[in-house]
Amino acid sequence: xxxxxxxxxxxxxxxxxxxxxxxxxxxxxxxxxxxxxxxxxxxxxxxxxxxxxxxxxxxxxxxxxxxxxxxxxxxxxxxxxxxxxxxxxxxxxxxxxxxxxxxxxxxxxxxxxxxxxxxxxxxxxxxxxxxxxxxxxxxxxxxxxxxxxxxxxxxxxxxxxxxxxxxxxxxxxxxxxxxxxxxxxxxxxxxxxxxxxxxxxxxxxxxxxxxxxxxxxxxxxxxxxxxxxxxxxxxxxxxxxxxxxxxxxxxxxxxxxxxxxxxxxxxxxxxxxxxxxxxxxxxxxxxxxxxxxxxxxxxxxxxxxxxxxxxxxxxxxxxxxxxxxxxxxxxxxxxxxxxxxxxxxxxxxxxxxxxxxxxxxxxxxxxxxxxxxxxxxxxxxx
Length: 382
Prior knowledge:
Helix 13 runs antiparallel to helix 14. This protein has helices at 17-23, 33-50, 63-72, 88-99, 117-125, 150-160, 180-183, 209-215, 227-234, 245-261, 263-283, 309-320, 346-362, 372-381; strands at 6-8, 56-60, 80-85, 103-108, 132-138, 140-141, 146-147, 164-168, 187-191, 202-207, 287-288, 299-303, 322-326, 336-339. It contains 14 helices and 14 strands. 43% of the residues lie in helices and 16% in strands.
């Protein structure tokens, strides 16, 4: 059946009908009072979502734009940084930092395992001359389905005294608790096509006062991603460049839906979907890729031993019109990933689990009784 594709990937995520209707409205002038009213409203909504009193700036660009902005607006040439690397996106931040001439010390963990907070503490404690200026890491590592202990790592960074925390929260914000002010986070970056439930095209960055102080002395090259003009124009509910007007319409509608649901309910729903997905996968005889107890509430990575993951993805899409994500780099063909963040319901999770189970049965690769996966997931959801 045409036009029935269901996205169960870590982004883009499904978009609610209310948000699609808002997105389809006729554009308005981005310097008009009407648009300024929308900017004012969404600014307050974004502060609510980030649990912060700091300004949350909106950039027309992907989550990578927000992360790069966080790096280049707070650091200077030759600055020493610690960079967490336990997946594709941690690896990316190492590359970005090196591209701007930073001295990068990598805190590494095997893909599928979380970053060890104690390694960060050791490196920070050994920095007697306070040369480390930032700790850069990914909260929810999308490539492996692992959630890192951002709260503990941030606590160690605060103890250091000089360094700031720059966090990629692209697949964690809106899926789990990320209280920026409470955890003392300095830079939080995210993107619209994940927990925000709107199409790709906007990124968001919030900076603490410590981060803004660092911005005053940063000398890395920047123009479009120079956050000072964004901050100045935000004070007047505007933007230094032409923003994606219709995505703002969608953002306002999506954040209204999130506020109606409430933060605790959102976090509980994502945690429930993680538990149900994990239970269903294990009950059908498959292996979770993320280390036990460290799975992200946004995405579950599956290691189907002795089975080509791309074959499973292909059959699930062809027979059931459900799109699952594949593995990246050396994990291509070895794992598949089930996205369960944003506008995802209990029904979506059950449908995905049953489709994977039916696909394995059609390949004569199901090693457990048919229906065991769905029963295990349903038990969690009930």
